# Entry
Amino acid sequence: MKETEVEKVRKANEDFYEAFGSLKIGQMDLVWRHSEEVQCIHPGWEVLSGWKLVRSSWEHIFRATQFMKFHITDVTIAIYDKIAWVVCTENISSAQQDRYLESTILATNIYEKYHDRWLMIHHHGSPVYSRSALQEPSRKTHLN
# Structure
């Protein structure tokens, strides 16, 4: 049976997280389009534009990380012509500078079909906060 475009995009997204978890820049090189138009926004970072800066950011993250494991959930995929986007939740276990961390990141990954391959052109990750952290503190009314 022929693989559908949605399945190809799903596989490209899985390959991205395999590369991310491998902490190997050579694997990350394989999943990105190498152009000046690519962008990456890591949680808490400014927008990085162009493959040179994006690649450098991955090198920095990989040097600072001893271990990273992903459990990806809530995956939605949309395709329009030669552009596809994936929205998903990254549930991450990692070790950095002798600290073990658990985090949840909401990610948007955009892919372009280039020479019959889906390559990443944009990654944006934002931390997910609990609903209680986002609610305003209760205001007490004092009567005199």
